[in-house]
Amino acid sequence: MKTGIMDVRTRIAGTGSYLPDKILTNFDLEKMVDTTDEWIVSRSGIRERRVAAAEQATSDLATEAGRNALEMAAIGPEDLDLIIVATLTPDHFFPSTAGLVQRNLGATRAAAFDLEAACTGFIYALTVGDLFIRSGSFRTVLVIGAEVLTRFIDWEDRNTCVLFGDGAGAAVMKPSDDPGQGILSTHLHSDGRLADMLMAPGGASRMPPTHEVVEKKLNTVKMRGNEVFKIAVTKLSEVVDEVLQANGLREDEIDFLVPHQANLRIIQATARKLRMPMEKVIVTVDRHGNTSAASVPLALDEAVRGGRIKRGDRVLLEAFGGGLTWGAALVRW
Ligand code: COA
Fold first, then answer.
1. Closest ligand 1 atom, CA of 228?
2. Set 119, 161, 263, 288: catalytic member
3. Is 12 in contact with 142 (CB distance < 8 Å)?
4. Which of 19, 174, 241, 259 is the least buried, fewest Cβ under 10 Å from its Cβ?
């Protein structure tokens, strides 16, 4: 194994995504909890979200997204050196979801592990993949963000159940031949003092999954939404400044923003910070809801396959979520 960060950049050689077939609209939710389509759209921008079929777990969604990314990158599973799955809704505590994806794809040579940084998971995974490639340890890395969050939602809590959805997105990372192309910088942050603002309190070692925990739905997502909202806007603004400063760029030199899709108003605030018109912002929150670690790679894949993001574009990826965690990556496509 070679060591030391090399003077090489990591490019994204292919993207992929997968969404389950079942659509749950705001009108469906009106029949389940005391809410309205008007409230959900005006407060969050969400109109519908996908829900995984009963037999589907996170690794199934992740495998499909990974397969699509391999196809775009025109490589086979045997070319993979490493698979990282970012998820907060793994199939099991162990083995890792990444190991199951490795099995499903037949990526026999690859190492595999999961990474958990909640909604910021894909940015963390991209950063780790970039470092493995630039260190010379691995040449071909598959990073996936995948979630079946709808299994960990209290469907009687209108504060949270209207916000989340299921899905998976993936990217194949390889060394770039062109020094101008690839990941230009990555920026990761965390503030564990704010951990209890957004969490699933029960179901793990702190509060094992007893009957009582499950009856009280303590294994589902709890969020102090309004407080999280304000911190998200502030921290994403700070990380945008950090990206611009680290790369010596002005706001107008960023071509596309691919934000975490939690809330349209948070996305609009980040776009305003970048003085960027909404045409240059990739928005999927209306159709996907918040898919946590899957949201950024799902949006990225849609923009790449739709022909919006093209070679040479500077693309800013950012996310914010539980932990609390937040981060960004700037990529020259
Ligand atoms: N339908 C109708 N009313 C609802 C509702 C729903 N689905 N959910 C909450 N409400 C009510 C609340 O009960 C509250 O009523 P009250 O004032 O009578 O107590 C009112 O709406 C306002 O709630 P508030 O929390 O102030 O709304 P908000 O403008 O902050 O929007 C969120 C709520 C959750 C959409 C928003 O705070 C948000 O998106 N937060 C951040 C999410 C995020 O980024 N997470 C991090 C990444 S995972």
1. 41
2. 119
3. no
4. 241
